[in-house]
Design brief:
Arc Repressor Mutant, subunit A; 9 helices; mainly alpha; Tetracycline Repressor, domain 2; two-stranded antiparallel sheet
Length: 189
């Protein structure tokens, strides 16, 4: 017999698969309930409605995605490489975040030690700038967005190869890190 917590976790896991494939609009509660071996009534008792369930799954995926990134002042360009790696190894997280964006849902920023991950990362960028490791003309938030975009660029590329060849994947990752390094490089004033 499953505990309530185990059932809730199974519903969330089934919902993640359903929402990653179909988004909020296309997902079906009956398929989620069936995959979790739960009744629709139990699902609604735990989560209220489909959007609430979707928001919980997206929030959890966003937290895992951003918490997996190690933003270090001395290796800021490597952040783009880590984003590249994460998008390849956990594409469901990227799909969930993209579905939320397509649905027009605003989500609270994931938290880390009492502050948002954006605050954490912007503080790290500002520290790198103070240490002369990063061009100080960038506003930390803008630079963070640019590094995220560089890291995700190949994940959004429509090519059919999807980086199956590991030599190609390694080359693309190196290009991502190099592009980030060139953008953040301190410039003589």
């Amino acid at each position: 017999m499953r505990t309530g917590e185990e059932l809730r976790d199974e519903i969330l896991a089934a919902a993640r698969i359903e929402f990653a494939q179909f988004g909020l609009a296309g997902a079906r509660i009956d398929r989620i309930a069936k995959a979790a071996h739960a009744s629709k009534e139990r699902l609604y008792a735990y989560f209220g409605d489909k959007e609430t369930l979707f928001r919980q799954v997206v929030s959890a995926d966003g937290a895992v995605f951003f918490d997996s990134l190690a933003v270090r002042p001395e290796a800021l360009a490597e952040l783009a490489g880590e984003i590249f790696d994460l998008a390849r190894s956990r594409p469901e997280h990227l799909r969930m975040i993209t579905w939320a964006w397509l649905e027009g849902l605003t989500m609270p920023a994931p938290e880390w030690e009492g502050r948002t991950v954006q605050e954490r990362d912007m503080t790290t960028i500002a520290e790198a700038q103070d240490r002369g490791l990063v061009d100080s003309r960038w506003e930390p938030e803008r630079l963070l967005v640019m590094l995220l975009g560089i890291g995700l660029a190949w994940a959004h590329w429509p090519g059919p190869d999807a980086g199956v060849d590991e030599t190609v994947v390694a080359s693309r990752r190196a290009d991502v890190v190099e592009a980030a390094a060139r953008i953040i490089a301190p410039r003589e004033q």
